[in-house]
Amino acid sequence: MSGKGKLLIIDDNEELLFAFKLYLNRHFSKIDTIRNPNQMLSKLEGEVYDVYMLDMNFKAGVNSGNEGLYWLKRIMEFDSNACVVLITAYGDVELAVKAMKEGAVDFVQKSWDENKILSTLLAAYKLRISKLEIRGLKEKQKQINHHINKNSQFVRGKSDAMKEVFRTLDKVAKTEANILLVGENGTGKELIAREIHLLSDRSDQVFVHLDLGALSESLFESELFGYKKGAFTDAKEDRMGRFELASGGTLFLDEIGNVPMHLQTKLLTAIQNKQIVPLGGNSSVDVDVRIVAATNSDLFEMVAKGTFREDLLYRLNTIAITLPPLRERIEDIPELADFFLQKYADLYKKKIVHFEKSAIKKLTQYTWPGNIREFQHIIEKSVILSNTEKLTASDILLGEGAMSTKRKTDSFNLTENEKLLIEQAIKHTGGNMSLAAKELGINRSTLYDKIKKYDL
């Protein structure tokens, strides 16, 4: 830590300033001193300091400390990340507490305890570095959020169904209410969740997405709440869970209906108490998250069957927003088509400028079982395969690769046929893994395992 930070000392005792500078010179890269605090602001305009040592009293016979508190406020106004150590000849605990509340990082008596002075200033410099690192990380996070949000634009659409969705969304986004998004797979629940985050007062903070449908049961608790080193065999170090990562921002829990019954109590407790206990931990961690959950399941039916806790449902269901399937918002298809056309034409550097009417007609007459996700996949594929400046009906490849009930190989090998069936299901659903898993009669985590197994 030595030899790096810049220190400014403000004290009316010239001998003390000389002694401080002489003693501390080898521990800081630069040390400036000021006897009159009125000169401080002009000094700050030309230099950035890491640590300040500020006297509490400057006028003879005055020892209230009010002068020091005043100049402390001025420094903090100039630099909110300033690390100020106040010095006084009077040991006043009440004054020390007041100074700390105003932003001072420490408080020392004006006695020549070299070790105390040095350790206090080096600790203040270390804190300064930490503050700047945190500020840098926050700036990076803002840039990352901006990049992600820029690439996650949502087409609101003109249909009555989507207008109703956004009427509700615009009312509740700035509140702290938990929101439950309900709709078929591929209807854009993640994009709506991001839109809620962007419109909220948490928009400058992190948006964390956890797909519960892709988790095996053994990973639920560690992914949600994190774990401590040694909590299990492979826990080589502490790891934050999604709740802690999302603290201050929004936590999007996709496929909430997949949470195992025995873990729903822990999830409910975390949401209610705003505290989590990492796996293998003994103490709770405070978290401040806004929950947006999503499901394609009927949670009320699951409650009736005893597979989902009613109290958890009502904690998540403060506001419910139902997203319509694409087949119920046909009037939005031309706008969606143009949006994805421009997106993928730019991505693949194609000079495609528009759709012919026949192409739009073909798009509007299809039922879209995979909804927006399937629609996006079809437009992307059409853009990739096209060599013209317009897309015609023949360029729109709908239903290709649909699942066949006939066996397409003479082999009776189970592994070969399972791989083929999975490939057909994924093609049939336009890459919609949730829908493909449903068609195959398995859950999503099992489907992902098989995709990895067969290197699909």
Automatic annotation (TrEMBL):
A Pfam family? AAA_lid_14
TM region positions: none
InterPro entries named among the record's database cross-references: AAA+_ATPase (IPR003593), AAA_lid_NorR (IPR058031), CheY-like_superfamily (IPR011006), Homeodomain-like_sf (IPR009057), HTH_Fis (IPR002197), P-loop_NTPase (IPR027417), Sig_transdc_resp-reg_receiver (IPR001789), Sigma_54_int (IPR002078)
What GO molecular function terms would the record report? ATP binding; sequence-specific DNA binding
**Sigma-54 factor interaction domain mapped to chain residues:** 155-384
Keywords, in A-Z order: ATP-binding, Nucleotide-binding, Phosphoprotein, Transcription, Transcription regulation
Location of the Response regulatory domain = 6-125
Residues with 4-aspartylphosphate modification: D55
Q: Which GO terms describe its biological process?
A: phosphorelay signal transduction system; regulation of DNA-templated transcription
Asked if Lipoprotein is a keyword of the record, the answer is: no
Gene3D superfamilies hit by this protein:
1.10.8.60, 3.40.50.2300, Homeodomain-like (1.10.10.60), P-loop containing nucleotide triphosphate hydrolases (3.40.50.300)
The protein depicted here goes by the name Sigma-54-dependent Fis family transcriptional regulator
| Organism of provenance | Ancylomarina salipaludis
